[in-house]
Specification:
Number of strands of chain A: 5
Largest interface: A-B, 55 and 55 residues
Chains: A mainly alpha (421), B mainly alpha (414), C alpha/beta (503)
Number of helices of chain B: 17
Distance between the termini of chain B: 59 Å
Order of helices and strands of chain B: HHHHHHHHHHHHHHHHH
Number of domains of chain A: 2
Radius of gyration of chain B: 23 Å
Strand content of chain B: under 5%
CATH class of the largest domain in chain A: Mainly Alpha
Shape of chain B: globular
Oligomer: heterotrimer
CATH architecture of the largest domain in chain A: Orthogonal Bundle
Strand order of the largest sheet of chain A: 2-1-3
Distance between the termini of chain A: 34 Å
Largest sheet of chain B: none
CATH topology of the largest domain in chain A: ABC transporter involved in vitamin B12 uptake, BtuC
Structural class of chain B: mainly alpha
Shape of chain A: globular
Radius of gyration of chain A: 22 Å
Number of strands of chain B: 0
Amino acid sequence: MTRVSRLRVRGIGAFNVLLGLATALGFGLASGWKARSSLTFNPVDLSASAPWHVGTLTLATAPADLVLGLVMVALGVELWIRVPTRGVMARFGGVAVVFFLALLLWAVRTTGPAPINFVNVTAVLVGASALTMVLIFGSLSGVLCERAGVVNIAIEGQFIGGAFVGSMVASTTHDFFFAAIAGGAVGGLLGLILAFLSLRYLSDQIIVGVVLVTMLSGLSSYLNLQVLTPFPQYNTGNLAPNLPIPLLTKIPVLGPVLFDQTGFFYLMILLVAVVSFGLFQTRWGLRVRAVGEHPQAAATVGIRVVGVRYANVILGGVVAGFGGVAFMASQGQFQPGYTSGLGYIALAALIFGRWRPSGAVVASIIFGLSLYLSYNLQTFQVPVSTEVLGMVPYLITIAVVSGLIGRVRPPAADGVPYRRD
Amino acid sequence: MPEGRRRWWHHLTTQRPWLVTLYALVLGFVVGALVIITTTASVLDAWRAIFSSWSALGHAIKLTFDVVGAAYRTMFTGAVVNPRVFWHAVTTGQGWTYALTPMSETLTYAAPLIIASVGVGIAFQTGIFNIGANGQAILGGVAGAYAGSLIHLPTFLHLPLTLLAGILGGVAVGLIPGLLKAYTGAHEVIVTLMLNYVVAALLIFTLLSTALQQPGQQNDISRTIDPSAQLAPLFGAASGLRVNWGLAVAALVVVFAWWFLERSSLGFDFRVTGANPQAARASGINARAVIILVFVISGGLAGLAGIVQMAGTTHYLDGGFLIGNAGIGFTAITVALLGRNRPGGIVWSSLLFAGLGVGGRAMQAATGIPLDLATVIQSAVVLFVATPVLVQEIFRLRHTEAGEVRLATSGWGS
Amino acid sequence: MRLELRGITKRFGPLTANDHIDLTVEPGQIHCLLGENGAGKSTLMNVVFGLLHPDEGEILVDGVPQRFANSGEAVRKGIGMVHQHFMLVPVFSVAENVVLGFEPTRSLGRLDRARAREEIRRTSQEFNLEVDPDAIVENLPVGLQQRVEILKALNHDAELLILDEPTAVLTPQEIDALMAIMRSLAASGKSILFISHKLKEVRAVSDVVTVIRQGRVIDQVPPTTDEATLASLMVGRDVTLTVAKDAAAPGEPVLRLEDVVVRDDRGLVAVDHVSLSVHAGEILALAGVQGNGQTELVEAVAGMRDVESGRITLGGRDITNATPRHVLDGGLGHIPEDRQRYGLVMSMTLADNLVLNTPRRAPFAARGTRNLGAVRANAEDLVGRFDIRTTSVESPLSALSGGNQQKVIVARELSRPLEVLVAAQPTRGLDVGSIEYVHRQIVEQRNEGLAVLIVSSELDEVMALGDRIAVMHAGQITGVVDPSTSREQIGLLMAGAVGAADA
């Protein structure tokens, strides 16, 4: 392990300790000893007639949050002292989940005789999983592009394009398979444009990406008014059906979260597995990473740098296009502007996840949870502003790129134009 | 004459910066026309008819030109002037407000756009990509709203104070990426991108806070700023024209930016840094100071743009302030690129893009073609400007002058 | 393998980097290509390795003409190259780097890491190149990284190995190890093309030496040729330089270096306890083959590189680790070696470039506002005085020829009040007329009492200009001699023979 990564691990450890202390003091001690919080775990959709039933869990808020805070502190101290080389992100993800749990307990606390508020943990996780899924598609797209050395800042645009075309195709064919293919194709086409302008004409990748997002958001608003409004049959609204996996759905809490999902969710899991495996276990992955780290070195052994980059940027576009369709399928239809920067959060998840599929998954879970809570926490008359929670992904990313929580290192040739001589 | 004509042809086929811009504009409008054609049902139906009978071809072509022509004509008359209405005003002396409204609207939108774009352009000229102008503009608006609604002073103090508050709001947001880049090397693109969303959330947060929220409101709407803090209509409230003193502020900013880049010592340091960072260092320029100052100036101008937008038109903030496509901070990036980051060029490209926006609204009202077409044209134009070689190949330009838009953002390099 | 080059010519615009080069490397031979930086060695090697395509001439491998579309093809034909800047992915393991492009795989395209490791182990043992296949390359010392490069080439079954300046980055111990490796490879039948400008190593390891200069083959000599002869062949004497100058009247020391230590970009000691002083009214010429620490020394003086230890003073004031601004304001004029990169801004006007490091000085600016009239007048004046050929002082600098660009820097530096002028390779790339002109200017300034430090790898220039000559080798000053010293003596000092002049 190099010195830099040790610093990073320790930085994360220190951050965990601070967050834990804040949780213990701010949520725990400040709640007062009389406060009680209630959690429920039953799936929202009772028609599924869950064979399991977990009773409502009522806890004394202060001790519970105190304990959770101390758990976070302990996890942080462990990172600081042992400086492990593996599982750092997983531990950080664990701390984040504990934090959100503590936050929820605090948010629904009551001092009255009977609980008024509940948190349905299962419902929260199911709700957040849709956002997380979209973020994972986006950050996987980023992994594919940036590992090969091309910055794909146009993920947001690929989401928009995928969602728009996905909705049209889903509405006309009533088949999400075709919707996925069409959305993926649009994403891939946008990837091709990015690749063409930045690889052939060496245009600035960041400028092209930013302008592509602007273009797609304009184009989709335009088409929404020009096509979807007069012909509403092209945007009828369809939620992708859930495809429960028998037996596994019956696992309490995890069942509905992981095994009673849409096809897009399983596709996402498959893609994570394939990309992780491909990138780190196969010849293809070795070459892609070589192209992203040191294109000249790759070229000297006969690897076609530009070809690899084209392929990956297009592939990344396809994956982001899937993400757009998946988002549309979780919302039911297309609306202009409704991706509201999810593509940029996916970019953030990519960076926070250190350009690794597994890291991107953890980051997307954290970001997805914090986004979901920021959208939905109003329901619990929380005295804190939900906007603050919505800032979390962005603030974490800024802290990460500034090296405040340890420094991350992008692929060395990421965003650097490649000339053949 | 043949000699003269050949020279003229040579001019049009030799790659020059302004020529690439011109051709990019042409291509942008061609893209817009294609979008209209492929999405307008009546046009598509007319073309479908030629599969039944060749005689429909003439009609199809005519209809295509009519529809595209109507769109671009109403865009022009909505953004600049409607000759018929203008002539009516000239001959009768009546209806001047009506005749001048398009121009007034375009100038109203152009003013903050010019200011923000100049800020982005100065940063670009220094080799810095300030993608966060929108966030800086939003906080400028927020700071200005505090100063404009919570402090009560006579105009000659209140208005400058409000504008200053706007500038400082922008500086505050701009300093974050500036300091982080100078001291930790964090890439400004990521930091500014993320800050846009942080500030957008902050906007809602402040609008819902007791201090700024409009009394008696539950929604995210701010108090209206005092009349003493507003930028008054340029020709008086009675004129009915919205164009306001923000335009004068924009003019001052352009003059300042021209002076700054062309005449000031600090601006010279900026340009040297942007053109050759290593030579800048060797000739004694303090890179860290330049980075921080770029963000102070760029952020300050974005903040000023935000407050000019608010104090000149709406006079209050709501949750939709500069959000999404309408965000002048995002448009400013494309405007600056089109204007080649020079104040003069930015004035023209701001007028063009403001005109596209305003004209787009008129087009939508007259023809039903959505105004978002303007955004599509804008982004297509900028894609072409950012890829001069492509334009050069499309128009088979001879390559003689190396006058390309050169922007050095080399990777995330954190 | 027998590699034969016939009439290889490669041009870059007006510049001819390789001019009809003929060269033959016999099997089992260590053939050295000796030449200065910029002599065209790297271009030639890139041509052989398929990275560049020759404009004329042909490459024969074992008598068969070849055309390599890219380096992958060259590798397949048995040519391996160890680049000066290693072509290794720093974050990959040794095994991953070695097999890249030729990966053993199992089903599903999975990397067969076990086989890769085995292959490497086998090659390592065969050629006695021990290295841990699982180590991450960036964590290895430079010498081992180079070993990985060699291993990579051998693993691709290279029969001819090109080593481009392989010793430039190595410590003496690592160099010894490399020499041993080279000998054993040659003994096992591999051909080696060894590119260097370091005379000692060339003599120690090669079987035959080809000297090239300005893109042309100058001579082919046996390695037994003495170092002084090799040095003079390498630096050459194309133009007989004569500079009319009177004897110097040196005054007080102005620029002083005391025991200065500076590291290069790789963190190696480049300037090794150097002490020098430059007096008012004299030209001290710093001679030496390029890459012996002169660049780093100049950068340290100019405030652009950290000084690790020691002291630099300018007119009695301490400027150790001062900022470039401080040093420039303290009266140091600097003509940098890489002028397009450090000395000029090509997209800005001639007039602006002439005030590049004095933009705030009176009369060019007052209270933060530039006085463009004064900037322009200054430019008109300097264009006349220094004979800069341009259509207008407002033309972008990129429109000027290389010689005129150099004159811009000379004019800028000499037109402001200076205490010392440091000029690195001030006449490189200039035509004869411009060279004479620049020399005259420098001598004039010295006559007026300026202290001048000239860094040059052109021996003729050094001997013509210098009032005293300091010779630098491997980061150290091997001697300070009088310009009347013989070329051979100076050649010996350049080759690192300390105190040769005293003998």
